[in-house]
Design brief:
Number of domains: 1
Number of helices: 11
Strand order of the largest sheet: 2-1-3-4-5
Number of strands: 5
CATH class: Alpha Beta
Strand content: 5-15%
Order of helices and strands: HHHEHHEHHEHHEHEH
Largest sheet: 5 strands, parallel
CATH topology: Rossmann fold
Distance between the termini: 40 Å
CATH superfamily: SGNH hydrolase
Helix content: 40-55%
């Protein structure tokens, strides 16, 4: 488990290198555009999983096949699951950005969405009510479309101010409960603040870090697959 001091080291590092999120945005937009071509191919699959988020999903600094969506694809295939996993991560994205491109995401006909977004909102000190309203709008739309959602939680620490941090950290469990989501409490569990599992910037996981993230999220993905099979749209 990551201690509060570990969280502090991690997020202080994030603040110091925050400009990297913006500098790599266009690069990961191209990545996302390239990968989505695969979802448009007529393949024999049981469903489509879209990994939706920022640079933590896109895989900043690692090859596309080293980011967690590609590793998840490999793990599912090895276990006999015929699901296509699409990396729809865009670096520097906030909840507002995710909401603005939701129509495009839904045009890909996902059965399951792995939603890991909001770290950049917190680092920028974006109003808590805006973060909350954006997430509610995103999750309401996904629910209305009958898409099973796994929510990956994020955390901020006390250097952003006690009131803001408490309110921010409460958003994810509140959203999970309200929308009855499959909930992974902390997406970076066992990876944040561990130097050997992150790139030199101290922010982004390296290949080994993504392997751990993939192992951690995998049980939640299996729950999502089981839940998706029970939906009327898949019967």
């Amino acid at each position: 488990m990551i201690t509060m001091s570990g969280y502090m080291r991690y997020f202080m590092s994030v603040v110091m290198f925050f400009s990297l999120f913006s500098s790599c945005e266009s690069n990961n937009l191209e990545k996302s555009g390239d990968v989505v071509e695969s979802i448009q191919k007529k393949e024999r699959v049981d469903g489509v999983i879209v990994a939706l988020g920022d640079s933590l999903t896109a895989g900043y600094g690692v090859e596309l096949q080293g980011a967690y969506p590609a590793l998840l694809q490999n793990k599912l295939e090895a276990d006999g699951y015929r699901y296509k996993v699409v990396n729809a991560g865009v670096s520097a994205e906030t909840t507002s950005g995710t909401l603005s491109r939701l129509d495009w995401i839904l045009s890909q006909k996902p059965d399951i969405i792995l939603l890991v977004i909001g770290a950049n909102d917190g680092l920028r000190g974006i109003d808590i009510q805006l973060i909350r309203s954006n997430l509610e709008a995103i999750l309401t739309r996904l629910k209305d479309e009958g898409i099973v959602t796994v929510l990956g939680g994020m955390m901020m620490v006390w250097n952003l101010g006690e009131e803001y941090t408490l309110q921010y950290n409460a958003i994810y469990p509140q959203m999970a409960e309200k929308f009855e989501l499959i909930y992974m409490p902390f997406f970076l569990e066992d990876v944040a603040a561990v130097a050997a599992l992150n790139r030199a910037d101290g922010i982004h996981p390296n290949e080994r870090g993504y392997e751990i993230i993939t192992d951690n999220i995998y049980p939640y993905v299996l729950k999502a697959i089981a839940r998706a099979k029970d939906l009327p749209r898949n019967q």
